[in-house]
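Re: that backbone. Tokens:
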């Protein structure tokens, strides 16, 4: 498996992080410019942003939870030369689920639907870790 092929899902996950970060900055700047919130109100990270700015910020913050385990397992799979077709397939499933999760999180924000997609993503990362462990220790 080529390194480029195995890293492609990781790059798309990182792209999602930067998209959300820029969107969050735009929402916050707009709120400050319109006077919906003042610098003194948010200087110590108080949650006084308008709802949409909070929604996007929460989605951005969420990218530093489960995806961190995805980054680590991808790097380990590459270092140990264990990134096979199944690994890449599961990686793409995880990243697609992260985009779907982000879409739900920043639009309707239906918690049940968002939770289901989040849980499926967690299962993909778990599967990646299991697949790596099996390939390293049993195959």
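Recovered sequence:
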């Amino acid at each position: 498996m080529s390194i480029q092929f195995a890293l492609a899902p990781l790059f798309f996950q990182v792209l999602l992080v930067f998209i959300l970060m820029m969107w969050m900055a735009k929402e916050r700047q707009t709120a400050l410019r319109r006077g919906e919130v003042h610098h003194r109100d948010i200087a110590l990270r108080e949650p006084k942003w308008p709802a949409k700015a909070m929604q996007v910020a929460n989605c951005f913050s969420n990218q530093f939870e489960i995806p961190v385990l995805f980054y680590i397992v991808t790097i380990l799979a590459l270092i140990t030369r264990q990134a096979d077709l199944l690994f890449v397939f599961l990686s793409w499933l995880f990243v697609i689920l992260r985009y779907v999760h982000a879409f739900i999180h920043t639009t309707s924000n239906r918690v049940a639907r968002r939770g289901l997609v989040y849980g499926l993503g967690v299962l993909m990362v778990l599967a990646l870790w299991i697949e790596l462990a099996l390939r390293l220790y049993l195959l």
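The chain has one domain: 3-137. The chain has a mean pLDDT of 95.
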